[in-house]
Structures are given as structure tokens and as C-alpha cells.
Amino acid sequence: MTKKGFFLLSFVILCANLRLHAQESSSVFNFLNLPTSSHATALGGRNISLIEDDAALTFQNPALISSVNDKTVGLNFLTFMRGTKSGSASYAQVAGERGTWGANVQFVGYGTMTETTLGGEALGDMHALDMCVSGLYSYALGERWVGGAAGKFIYSHLGEFTSCALAVDLGISYFLEEKDFSLSAVARNAGGQVKPFGDHHEHLPFDLDVGFTKGLGHAPITVSLTMMDLTRWSKSYYYSSGKTISGGRIFMNHFNLGVDVYPVNMVYVAAGYNFRRASEMKAAGSSHAAGLSFGAGINLNRIKVGLAYAKYHLSAPTLAVSLSYRIK
Question: Is 158 exposed, middle or buried (0-12, 13-18, 19+ CB in 10 A)?
């Protein structure tokens, strides 16, 4: 069997085996669903098909590391809820004519909180931290096909409780350069807890996505459409504030739309709309910029900088900053 056939078969088997497992309405380590790249944040928070020299995009699809320049370092920072700090770092290096390997680190620190008993009695301060370390490898399966895999070690600390897990991401990408068209699929967070918080092992946030990015002819515009959470169709998975969710709404909650405009070659301006985030924030009582996100970036020879704005919750907006540097 060829490497291309082996990778495709592995991807299909993985998705089939985890379909029922992923129907669970709750899971742990959901910080893994946060975007790391400011460009992905600007495009609605989910993009698995953008062919760009951005190492942070590999958090969403390990196959995309093949489009990152050799010896590139990326740093990303994300403001989330008040008192919460989130950041990540990425590295990519070419390995031979067809391969690329890399490493990613992601963390979310929740600051200091007051630990209490069930009766509300204060016991003191406690800290919470989520972290994920991963190694990636991609291989060009042909002129247009690339497969990628990432192995993850996930750790969470909540007061006196800790948990760790092992997971894997599998991604595949097709790129037709002459048509400025790319198509990707990825299965993320397939694995399980090695050490649970208590006696019960909980599910990881497994996710199956497909998406495409297409340039609009000679216009300096690209459109991206991502279908996400393709194993989750139960109404119990989506927040509705007690109201019944229609089948049409559940279907639309799986879509993320993004648009890039390139006024000049080195600059992009991006906007996105996440249908699920818009629906759930409106149900929670906020319609101001619900589901919308915006951003811009500049791509110089060896340095790239990106900024993005989005809103993930009612308490505060989210700002994302990305910096990338090519060492050689």
C-alpha cells in the first residue's frame, strides 16, 4: 500500500471508530478548541484549509505545516475571559524533499480563584492551568496531496486536582495552485485521559472538520468555508437558553465563513462569521457583534504580524496577536 493510501485509510478508520464516542454532549480540555492564529481568529475561529506561511494554523490541521517556511518560529497571544491568559508557540522545519516536522505548545492560565466548600465557606486561593504539547509531521503524498499528523500530551491543573491525556490529530490537504483552491479534512483530539480528575474518565473534545478555501479569479479575494463538529448533531450539545433548537439551526451551527482581501501583496484584511457562536451568544442575551470577527496582518520577508478581534463570551472581547519570524 502506498503512503497516500495508508494515510487515507487511517483517516477513515479513525473517524468511523470515534463517531459514536464524539456524540457525547460534554468533554474536558475544551481549551483545545480555542484558535491560536490571529488569522484564524479573524476568519471566524476555525480554518483548516488556508495555505499560508503560518505555523499557528497547524493547531487546527497538522497537514498545513507543509506550507510553512523552513525554520519558522511563531508566537501567539489571546485575551479571553477576565483574568485569563492564553498563548502558544510553534516551530516548523523542513525534513527532506517531502517532509516537514514541527512542535507546538499551547497554554491557558485562569489566574487565582477562591476555593470554597459546597456550603460556600472559603478555603483559600487556588490556581488553574491547561497546557498541551504536541509534535507534528507532514508528508507530501503527491503534487497536490499532503497528509499530516500530530501527537499531543495534554495536562490540566485545577486546585488540588490534575488530569493528563494523550491524543492525536490527523489531517489531509489538497491544493490546486493554478485554480487557487484548497480542500482539507481533519480529525482532531482523538484519544483519552491517562489520568482523570477523579474516578471517572471523561471524553476529549474530538472534532471532525472539512473545509475549502478558494480565490475569486483575478480579484484579490479568497473565501473560506469550514464545516465543523460533524459528529455532533444532538440538540443537547448546543446552548439554547431553554428554547427548542430547530433542525435548520443545528445544521447552520456547523458552518464557519471567512473572507480575505489583499489590497497589496504583503497585507491582508480578514473577516469571519461563526454561525454557532452567533446563535449561542444571542441565546445568552448578547447580539452585539455576535459571531463576527475581524483582523489584519502584514507579511514581510522574514517577519509576519497579525491582529484580530472576536467575541467569544459576554464579559469581554477577545484580541489575538500573532508574530512569526523565519530564522533562515
Answer: middle
- Residue 275 pLDDT > 60: yes
Give pLDDT tens digits for 102-136.
999 999 998 777 767 677 777 777 788 999 999 99
Residue 84: per-residue pLDDT: 82
Handedness of CA 45, 46, 49, 52 (dihedral sign): positive
Asked if 147 and 138 touch (Cβ cutoff 8 Å), the reply is yes
DSSP codes joined into one string, 174-209: EEEGGGTEEEEEEEEEEEEEEE-SSSS------EEE
CATH topology for the 3-115+124-326 domain = Porin (2.40.160)
Entry pTM: 0.88
Q: Identify the CA nearest to 108 among candidates 136, 134, 76, 135.
A: 76
Q: Classify the phi-psi angles of 136: left when phi > 0, otherwise alpha if psi is within -120 to 50, otherwise beta.
A: beta
Find out whether 42 and 293 touch, Cβ atoms under 8 Å. yes
Nearest CA-CA partner of 163 in 120, 210, 122, 202:
202
Report the b/e string of 295-325 with b at 16+ CB within 10 A.
Answer: bbbebeeeebebbbbbbbeeeeebbbbbebe
> Please, which pLDDT band fits residue 279 given cuts at 50, 70 and 90?
confident
